[in-house]
Specification:
The chain has 477 residues and is an alpha+beta fold. It folds into four domains: 9-114, no CATH class; 120-211, no CATH class; 229-299, SH3 type barrels (Roll); 311-476, no CATH class. It has helices at residues 9-18, 31-44, 49-60, 91-96, 98-114, 140-147, 168-180, 311-319, 339-350, 372-380, 400-411, 432-441, 460-476; strands at residues 65-66, 69-70, 120-121, 194-195, 205-206, 210-211, 229-232, 236-239, 249-253, 259-261, 279-284, 289-293, 297-299. The strands form five sheets. Strands 12-11-10-7-13 form a five-stranded antiparallel sheet, with no helix packed on it. A two-stranded antiparallel ribbon has the order 1-2. Strand 1 (65-66) and strand 2 form a beta hairpin. Helix 1 crosses helix 2, helix 2 packs across helix 3 and helix 11 (400-411) packs across helix 12 (432-441). This is Subtilisin-like serine protease. InterPro entries: Cell_Envelope_Struct_Comp (IPR051465), Lysozyme-like_dom_sf (IPR023346), SH3-like_bac-type (IPR003646), SLH_dom (IPR001119), Transglycosylase_SLT_dom_1 (IPR008258).
Amino acid sequence: MNIFLIPSVHAETQIADKCSFEQSEGVNPDPQTINCLLTEAAVKYDIPPEIVKAVAEKESAGKQFEDNKPLISEDGGIGIMQVTQKDNYDDTRLKQDIGYNIEAGVEILNKMYDRNDLPSINKSEGSVNTYQRNYIENWYFAVMAYNGIKPVNSPVIQENGDENKEAYQEEVFEIIERNMDRELGELDFSRDDFDYDPAKRDNIRFVTMEYRFLEPFTSSNYFYKKGQTVGVVQEVNLRSQPTTSNPNVIGKVKQGEHLTIEGSYTYEKSQESLNPFVWYKVEKENGTKGYVASNYLRNKFKDVPANHYAEESIDQLFDMNILRGHNEDTFGMKENLIRIHAAMLFVRAENLSLTGRPDPGFVDVSPESRYFDTVSAVADEGIFNGDEKGNFHIEDDLKRSEMAVLLQNVYNFEKSSKEHPFVDVKDDIWYDESVNRLYHAGITSGVSADQYGPSETVTREQFAAFLIRSIEYQKNN
């Protein structure tokens, strides 16, 4: 077991002060004080609070004490977080101080995330595709390790290959789904990924150490900033106060509407409420202000109109950590996509390694360029080529002819015996076959019934739609 640091007394005091909490011997705090203590400890360690709260619920039903005595399980787990690694913690404080116990558990969970002997999910080297801590699904194996990497927690039952719904981490994730009122991204594991003897208690041997899931993942709803644009995952109530305990509904927020965050989250007004979420004060586009429960919020680009044909594609690619805007609020609608940004999207979508690639030799991309590694990767994979003079043309707008070839290079759409209907695509021109395959795969239908528009540029939202269709094609074929 790793050596853990003793939680900082100063940090605990800060959290207790923020939550207006003072420990009384043998007494569990009210539900919203516990909500606050768990949330603030999680935020301090940059862990999605949704995870920490679900672990606490699974471990102890959110209780530090039972019958005025410290809650201690048969296997020696102590308190709300059922901490069993006691050697480096104060045993008395683990039993008597809920704030100390929570921070010990959160610290252990954080250490589990940083272990290099556990599989990673959607992890990639370098800054191009950062392993984001705020995506809940990325914590799957850290949550598993919090309880133990034993056969009982195998994601898949070895005997029949079925999903192991009784695994610790599966039950924690089920709690998260219930608390957030939405489904998390699907993690499709195989029994070949895990080697263990179900009759023994030896640790699981992880056969697969890196997973790449092209699924929309779920980001934590506790890190929004003042002025940030968000939306909702379903129609929700807008309330005058941060509580569900009284009739204070002042309106509705519909899916697709843009909201502006007014400030940091706040806690439920009713201290006895069992609501596991927090509240954000938001402003609607018509100026109406009110509170929305955090579990229904999602990131949103303010320049992507509701019900736009590419809205869902943009949201999906964002949730896959493939697509990013100019900043957290602006996507760049109607702007032309440049070649280097297309290259970055392919690197993220295909999880391409940026190391060990040969110099592609483009005269306009020097080894000192911040794009050198990305360009080297897509050139080495045979996705991009330069021109006859050896230039990559980093900042050139992507043309529809190029787009067809790039998507074909990556996704290898099936050859069709039928011809496309486009009169502006000459037979045997360098992009003819790619256009034909994309057309019959349903990726693009052209700019009109008989015009493909090969020399026209591709906008950012158009490419988002083409890319998500290509990813879906890859999944289904």
